[in-house]
Amino acid sequence: MHDYLPLRQNIRSDNCGVYSFGMMLTLLGLPTSKWLANHLFQSIDHYATLKGITSYALARAVAKVTGVSDLLWIQIGRPSFFELTEILLQQDISLNKPFVIVMRAIHKSKHLRCWHATLCTGCNKRAIHLLDPLGPRKLHPGLFNVKLTSIPLNNRYFAVEPSCYVVDRNAGVDILGHLPFARTDP
User: Fold this and answer.
1) Residues 6 or more apart from 111 whose CB is under 8 A from it?
2) Average pLDDT along the chain, 186 residues, taken 10 residues at a time
3) Residue 183: its pLDDT value, please?
4) Which pTM does this prediction carry?
5) What are phi and psi of 100, to 5 degrees?
6) CB-based burial, 118-146: b 16+ in 10 Å, e otherwise
7) What is the structure's pLDDT at 184?
8) Which run of H or E residues covers position 105?
9) What separation in angstroms does the CA of 29 have from each of 10, 22, 49, 96?
């Protein structure tokens, strides 16, 4: 199963949503290659292309394959790290219940900006563990390859280590979560 983790992408491709979908399926017991992730996704949403997918299409694909019908996108505008971890901790994330997170990524040296989908496999008050298509091949024991750290680089960015990008918290964060959902206000 772990031979399929992580599904990695090039920094100039738009495959992160499909590959995060594939990694989620692998964690849920269906070992999924890049080819199979693309094939499954396109069979569910024939409008999907390798030029990127919509949040709606990603939610539909996850719901169809997992049978979970109470999925929704939780949009968090300009979250503090504390708020983000509290919301994720409320969602009861585990390797058997990973969550897709979409964030505004900015490449550290090339200054490319994009919306980036990744898979959250765990969380504590100090770090959010991600299985990231842009991250390194090496997996940590908790099945993550990067972590979003609790110490922002400044008031605008969160650090992602080890990785080639930072997260612009001012652009907001979207989490594909379950109903019911209660947002905490700091």
Assistant:
1) none
2) 75 82 88 88 65 79 81 88 90 83 91 90 93 92 89 78 92 78 37
3) 36
4) 0.86
5) -85, 135
6) bbbbbbeeebbbbbbbbbeeeeeeebbbb
7) 38
8) strand 99-107
9) 26, 11, 25, 9
Neighbouring residues of 160: CB distance < 8 A, sequence distance ≥ 6: 105, 130, 132, 146, 147, 148, 149, 166, 167
Q: Would you say 176 and 71 are in contact if contact means Cβ atoms under 8 Å apart? A: yes
**Whole-number pLDDT of residue 152:** 61
DSSP secondary structure code for residue 66 in this structure: H
Strand partners, 75: 174
The closest alpha carbon to 176, from 33, 65, 31, belongs to 65
* Cβ-based neighbours of 117, under 8 Å, separated by 6 or more: 16, 17, 20, 58, 100, 101, 102, 133
Please state, in angstroms and rounded to a whole number, the distance separating the CA atoms of residues 138 and 165.
17
Residues 6+ apart with CB under 8 A from 81: 148, 150, 151, 152, 158, 169
Residues 6+ apart with CB under 8 A from 155: none
The candidate with the shortest Cα–Cα distance to 11, out of 107, 129, 147, is 107
CA distance 146 to 130: 5
Gyration radius of the chain's alpha carbons: 15
| Angle at CA of residue 87, ends 82 and 90, nearest 5° | 125
The answer to whether 100 and 24 have CB atoms below 8 angstroms apart is yes
